[in-house]
Write a sequence for this structure.
């Protein structure tokens, strides 16, 4: 009894002390703008002789919590502006507001947003080779995330067709799953087919960060050659963003994003979007008629390619509480329907085969700065996808491109009879703990765990034993990083990562040797690898930055690569983890002349030395892709971008990428003679490509505050071979020809950005555009979009 009294007394004392401490803490907030009243995102706010500080959000707002009351010196700085200091008094228990208007400085680096780089300054100042897209500048377009990324140097987004088609993302020669995708730092490994970057509207993102080659430790994943982080609106403002677009091939897109934060700290967010298209565009291809004729270069219309998806992302919770800066519970629900028009090449054509998918994913997010002690920050995320995928192929027909078909008796299919419906039971948990020791030293610890357990059945074959076989995968990535910031001029990060994967699966065999006698043997394997890296940057002068980075990275085989995707990818359980030594050297320079002409240049030299490189090839009957290991692959290349702007009236830029991806495998497995493919360029991989764009701005067009913007974009991809260059003769080799694609657009903004009307023409000259294995993409297309945007922090 006495012990209980002592414990109760101690708890009461702790409460009194905690309450007293809370009452003696205050907060400050404010907004940072230019001298002309425009918000400055990424500005740095520091309180002298303390560890308190923050950066402004996309609206120029900032908030610093839990400051002991007293007198301080508040310093505000931003690239391209003169630093300001202000003496402030923080009153006990009060929220004080301090606003700043910064003057431009011709002696410092100009802001990237002004010259049209659409990038967040703080991201681009990192030591890593990174490009950040300001997605807000694209919110009036009909782009999805993938097509916005297709304009970044080093990036190629390759699709099998129109809206919702199979997509292959390439970054500096690494492709597919070698590049990882994140949303707000959370891996998208388990999101399923209903939530992919080529069906997410650009309006969902505030910015998109592209890390090339070397990936920071806080993005915990087994990325071999880079990562893409989609950053959404996580501010405490209240807003609504609604848009609808309609275009060619009966394409409809709708997006609604709503956020509300109450003074009490209660926060709710809702993101909803849908995409629909018949994808009935015309293609030029050879047609095998059923009368025995083989007709070349026929213009036909796609007829089994309808796609639609609907997704809703809801979240509710609290922000800016003593126990959490953010605690949000959410649910993502969605579905998609996709008709399958072709196989891996256009020679295979289907008329009824289709696929369905869904996502049902509860989520939780927790973040707390200064946990237990100043400088200790924790971020935890978790989700589990209960969604399903189904492959439906039950019609026993053979189609050609004229939409003619032959129907056969009995139970058959177009490729492989199936109504297989499965659930991947995919879960993900991430935790990131960072500690700022002082202004020079900081540490970061990150862990990501991913589980996968595919289970399914086929009502056509309810007793099929093969569907009961295990397909289980567990993966864990642990990372530890240290950052040293000597000054604003120089900082260096070093890190190491531990990769672990275990697989459980079964292999079929014939125990008796008799036809049709199949049994299964359960197998297990596991991998454990250690990677490490370093990244450093130095500002020679304020507007001239040099970067260098290196990483020994690993990428563990993905579940689709191991077990197949039941569509156009055949599984290969014998895949080994791939590894790469990634080197980057970059230079960035920005300048201005009389505050009228602004220039920027970014250049990066890269070298990749990969072992057990995982790449796709066609299977034996040329109808599916299969992933395999290539012992040794190297890539030496470069990328560069130049931009220019004149006042606020005109901006233009051009970027180019060259990558010399070579097969460095001298002897194939078990062979004593040198491989004829040694030093061949890796096939079916673009090696020279680039983008150019220009925009013209007419301010106060029609009425003061309204703006008309005219834009132009062009994509160039040099010709490349479909198969190995050393195989076959010049007249028998398949190649993907040189391609040009030009887009034009016009956007009229009214009411200070509240009302927006956009018109676009894609592939203006109606050129033939090809991607994976010569699959033709849409020709000329027209789109119109209307958008309404409101924010209480505008």
């Amino acid at each position: 009894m006495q012990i209980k009294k002592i414990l109760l007394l101690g708890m009461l004392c702790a409460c009194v002390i905690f309450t007293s401490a809370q009452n003696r803490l205050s907060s400050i907030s404010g907004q940072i703008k230019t001298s002309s009243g425009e918000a400055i995102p990424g500005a740095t706010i520091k309180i002298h002789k303390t560890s308190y500080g923050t950066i402004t959000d996309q609206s120029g707002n900032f908030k610093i919590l839990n400051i002991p009351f007293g007198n301080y010196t508040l310093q505000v700085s931003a690239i391209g502006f003169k630093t300001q200091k202000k003496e402030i008094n923080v009153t006990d228990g009060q929220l004080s507001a301090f606003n700043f208007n910064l003057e431009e400085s011709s002696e410092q680096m100009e802001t990237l947003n002004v010259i049209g780089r659409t990038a967040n300054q703080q991201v681009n100042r990192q030591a890593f080779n990174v490009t950040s897209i300001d997605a807000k500048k694209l919110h009036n377009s009909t782009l999805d995330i993938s097509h916005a990324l297709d304009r970044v140097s080093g990036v190629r987004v390759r699709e099998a067709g129109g809206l919702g088609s199979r997509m292959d993302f390439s970054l500096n020669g690494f492709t597919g799953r070698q590049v990882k995708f994140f949303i707000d730092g959370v891996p998208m490994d388990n999101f399923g087919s209903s939530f992919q970057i080529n069906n997410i509207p650009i309006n969902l993102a505030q910015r998109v960060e592209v890390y090339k080659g070397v990936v920071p430790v806080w993005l915990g994943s087994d990325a071999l050659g880079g990562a893409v982080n989609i950053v959404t609106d996580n501010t405490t403002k209240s807003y609504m963003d609604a848009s609808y677009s309609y275009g060619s091939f009966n394409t409809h897109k709708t997006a609604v994003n709503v956020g509300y934060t109450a003074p009490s700290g209660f926060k709710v967010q809702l993101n909803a979007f849908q995409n629909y298209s018949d994808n009935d565009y015309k293609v030029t291809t050879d047609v095998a008629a059923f009368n025995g004729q083989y007709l070349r270069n026929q213009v036909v219309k796609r007829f089994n390619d309808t796609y639609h998806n609907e997704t809703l992302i809801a979240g509710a919770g609290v922000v800016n509480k003593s126990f959490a800066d953010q605690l949000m519970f959410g649910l993502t629900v969605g579905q998609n329907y996709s008709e399958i028009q072709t196989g891996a090449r256009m020679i295979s054509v289907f008329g009824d085969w289709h696929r369905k998918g869904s996502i049902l994913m509860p989520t939780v997010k927790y973040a707390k700065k200064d946990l237990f002690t100043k400088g200790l920050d924790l971020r935890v995320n978790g989700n589990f996808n209960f969604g399903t995928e189904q492959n439906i192929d039950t019609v026993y027909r053979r189609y050609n491109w004229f939409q003619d078909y032959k129907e056969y008796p009995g139970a058959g299919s177009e490729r492989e009879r199936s109504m297989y419906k499965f659930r991947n039971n995919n879960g993900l948990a991430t935790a990131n703990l960072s500690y700022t020791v002082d202004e020079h030293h900081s540490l970061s610890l990150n862990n990501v765990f991913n589980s996968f357990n595919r289970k399914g059945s086929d009502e056509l074959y309810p007793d099929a034993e093969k569907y009961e076989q295990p397909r289980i995968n567990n993966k864990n990535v642990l990372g530890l990083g240290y950052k040293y910031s000597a000054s604003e001029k120089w900082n260096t990060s070093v890190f190491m990562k531990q990769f672990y994967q275990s697989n459980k699966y079964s292999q079929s065999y014939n125990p008796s040797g008799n036809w049709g006698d199949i049994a299964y043997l359960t197998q297990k394997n596991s991998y454990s690898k250690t990677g490490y890296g370093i990244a450093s940057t130095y500002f020679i002068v304020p507007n001239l930055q040099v970067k260098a980075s290196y990483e020994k990275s690993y990428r563990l085989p993905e579940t689709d690569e191991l077990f197949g995707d039941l569509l156009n990818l055949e599984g290969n359980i014998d895949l080994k983890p791939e590894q790469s030594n990634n080197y980057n050297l970059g230079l960035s320079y920005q300048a201005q002349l009389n505050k009228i002409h602004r220039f920027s240049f970014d250049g990066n030299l890269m070298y990749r030395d990969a072992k057990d490189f995982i790449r796709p090839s066609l299977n034996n009957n040329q109808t599916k892709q299969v992933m395999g290991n290539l012992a040794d692959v190297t890539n030496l290349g470069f990328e560069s971008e130049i931009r220019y702007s004149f006042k606020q009236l005109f901006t233009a830029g051009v970027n180019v990428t060259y990558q010399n991806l070579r097969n460095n495998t001298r002897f194939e497995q078990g062979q004593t003679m040198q491989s004829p493919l040694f030093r061949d360029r890796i096939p079916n991989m673009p090696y020279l490509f680039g983008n150019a764009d220009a925009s013209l701005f007419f301010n106060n067009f029609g009425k003061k505050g309204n703006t008309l913007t005219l834009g132009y974009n062009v994509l160039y991809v040099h010709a490349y071979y479909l198969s190995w260059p050393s195989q076959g003769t010049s007249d028998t080799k398949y190649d993907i020809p040189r391609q040009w694609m030009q887009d034009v657009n016009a956007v009229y903004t009214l009411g200070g950005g509240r009302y927006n009307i956009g018109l676009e023409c894609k592939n203006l000259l109606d050129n033939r555009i090809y991607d994976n294995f010569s699959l033709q993409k849409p020709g000329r297309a027209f789109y119109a979009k209307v958008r309404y945007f409101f924010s209480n922090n505008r």
Remarks:
- Residues 644 and 691 are 15 Å apart (CA to CA).
- Confidence is low (pLDDT under 50) at residues 1-24, 106-119.
